[in-house]
Design brief:
It is a single chain. By secondary structure, the protein is of the alpha/beta class. Helix content is 55%, strand content 10%. The chain folds into two domains: 200 residues, Spore Coat Polysaccharide Biosynthesis Protein SpsA, Chain A (Alpha-Beta Complex); 239 residues, CDP-alcohol phosphotransferase transmembrane (TM) domain (Four Helix Bundle (Hemerythrin (Met), subunit A)). The strands form five sheets. The chain has a six-stranded mixed beta sheet with strand order 2-1-3-12-5-13, with helices on both faces. A two-stranded antiparallel ribbon has the order 4-14. Helix 12 runs antiparallel to helix 13. It is globular and about 90 Å long. It starts with a strand and ends with a helix. InterPro entries: CDP-OH_P_trans, CDP-OH_PTrfase_TM_dom, CDP_ALCOHOL_P_TRANSF_CS. It holds the Pfam family CDP-OH_P_transf. Belongs to the CDP-alcohol phosphatidyltransferase class-I family. Keywords: Membrane, Transferase, Transmembrane, Transmembrane helix.
């Protein structure tokens, strides 16, 4: 279970016990009622902290963090937010994650612009400043990089070129609880460095970043979040909230974002709609998995005949076996039905379908009057794929045990972030040398679309493997299929093994 901390009480005058109401939503709930209903499944008894006295609020949060045994979600109580956004934030893999909004970049009109935008000065030469701009009512005092918060300032502590605000939701894994508690207590003793417009969430992230915690970031994307303080803001928020398609965002989130080329363009474009159809009719992920297994066995039976029409039918069936293999995970993520049995079935029977198809292809080749040496190729393909899966599993375990490289730290009372940015630049330079430099260069190359998809395809993921089986079996014969699997699989094994050795030595 996730521990939830609500910062502040519901907005609205005390004379209106129901608070500010979201008239655009069914039942016209108050902001507080709706938010508490949303977090009920996370924490039936959330802690509420009043931020009127910053020092007292920080100490109260430290007490909550020390007593927490699970992950922690910090959320302003005047938040209007989609359920799906809360879900995505709490299910993120990052140890710490903050919802942000970036300040729009200044627009210029070419030669007609009266002055150059501020960020024409290289950031390495920029002077730290007190963020005076405001965005959505919050001071812009955070510097957001590509994947994490680089630095945060306060009303009296300068930050280099602030470009973002911390909207409010902050999720921390249990491993950061003691750091959060210690940081909050230290911050409580230096309230003279803060101003009346400093936001409490901003101060928390300020402390965490200076303590070396990697705080990841995410934007709202196609979901809604806003803090509200007046009835007018509540009315606007309610209208915007229902005007956005939360179900479509939930459906899109059910599709893995790091799939291969074939899966992305030839399966996920429509499989998500099958997943939604199945989920709305009560089909469980395990039932969809059984459909995938049945299709895989049927494909193997077709291949075992060795006859061309049945080989084509087998190719079609193995394709749809893979489609439903994707659908079962999408149903689980869309319907939020996860289980150990489902994960085990999915991982185990992916291999079963693949190997039973190998057997079907070999049998079909032999019954068609060809030599039985096809079994050598079949066993070679099976052995190669089994070895690759073993290496994937063992590397994943070893990689999880590898300690994360510590980020630079900075004293909380340092007047600006110069030394922190200097240490980060030194860290970046060190990571750009030797094997790490090569890996970083290869990672950067992924920004080019052709390289990105080439890297996805060369590792011969399951989508490409099933596509190769379906196409070569339908158009050619089992020998061509096995040769494709062995040759492409060998290239993929060499590529992944080289990369993992380099990452192990880096």
């Amino acid at each position: 279970m996730t521990r939830v901390v609500l910062l502040g009480s519901s907005p609205g005058p005390d004379t209106a016990p129901t608070g500010l109401r979201l008239a655009a939503l069914p039942g016209t709930p108050t902001v507080a009622e709706r938010l508490r209903g949303q977090i009920l499944s996370l924490d039936p008894q959330p802690a509420t902290i009043e931020p009127t006295d910053v020092a007292a609020a920080l100490r109260a949060l430290a007490d909550v963090a020390e007593s927490a045994t699970d992950n922690l979600l910090i959320l302003p109580a005047n938040s209007v937010v989609h359920d799906e956004l809360i879900y995505q934030i709490t299910k993120a893999k990052r140890g710490a994650l903050a919802l942000i909004a970036k300040e729009p970049r200044p627009e210029t009109a070419g030669e007609e612009a009266e002055e150059a935008p501020e960020d024409t000065v290289p950031i390495d030469e920029a002077e730290p400043e007190i963020g005076e701009h405001r965005l959505e009512g919050l001071p812009v005092r955070a510097r957001a990089g590509k994947s994490r918060i680089v630095s945060v300032g306060t009303a009296r502590i300068r930050v280099t070129r602030p470009n973002a605000i911390l909207l409010g939701p902050l999720h921390l894994k249990a491993t950061h609880m003691q750091t959060l508690a210690d940081t909050c207590r230290e911050l409580a003793g230096m309230t003279d460095r803060f101003g009346p417009d400093d936001d409490l969430v901003q101060l928390i992230v300020f402390g965490l970043v200076r303590k070396g915690v990697s705080v990841g970031l995410r934007g709202r994307r196609d979901l809604f979040y806003r803090r509200v303080t007046t009835q007018g803001e509540v009315n606007e928020a309610g209208t915007e909230l229902i005007g956005m398609n939360e179900d479509r965002a939930r459906l899109d989130n059910a599709v893995k974002g790091a799939d291969g080329f074939f899966t992305t363009y030839f399966v996920s474009t429509y499989s998500r709609f099958i997943a939604r159809w199945a989920a709305r009719r009560g089909l469980t992920p395990n039932q969809v998995t059984l459909i995938s297994i049945a299709l895989g066995v049927a494909a193997a039976a077709c291949f075992a005949t060795g006859e061309r029409p049945w080989m084509v039918a087998g190719g079609v069936l193995i394709y749809f076996a893979f489609v439903f293999d994707c659908v079962d995970g999408q149903v689980a993520r869309y319907a939020r039905k996860f289980g150990v049995l489902g994960a085990w079935l999915d991982a185990t029977f992916d291999r079963f379908k693949e190997y039973v198809v190998f057997a079907g292809l070999a049998v079909g080749w032999v019954v068609s009057g060809n030599s039985d040496d096809i079994w050598v190729l079949a066993l070679a393909a099976l052995a190669l794929q089994s070895t690759r899966h073993l290496l994937d599993f063992s590397f994943g375990i070893a990689n999880r045990r590898k300690p994360a490289r510590q980020l630079p730290t900075l004293a909380l009372d340092a007047p600006d972030d110069r030394s922190l940015r200097r240490d980060l630049e030194q860290r970046r330079a060190e990571r750009s040398q030797g094997i790490r430099g090569l890996l970083k260069m290869w990672t950067r190359a992924g920004r080019f679309r052709a390289v990105h998809w080439a890297r996805k395809m060369i590792v011969f993921p399951i989508g490409e493997r099933f596509a190769a089986i379906a196409i070569t079996a339908a158009l050619f014969d089992a020998r061509v299929t096995f040769l494709t699997l062995v040759i492409w699989g060998s290239v993929a094994a060499a590529y992944t093994l080289t990369g993992r050795l380099m990452r192990s030595l880096a």
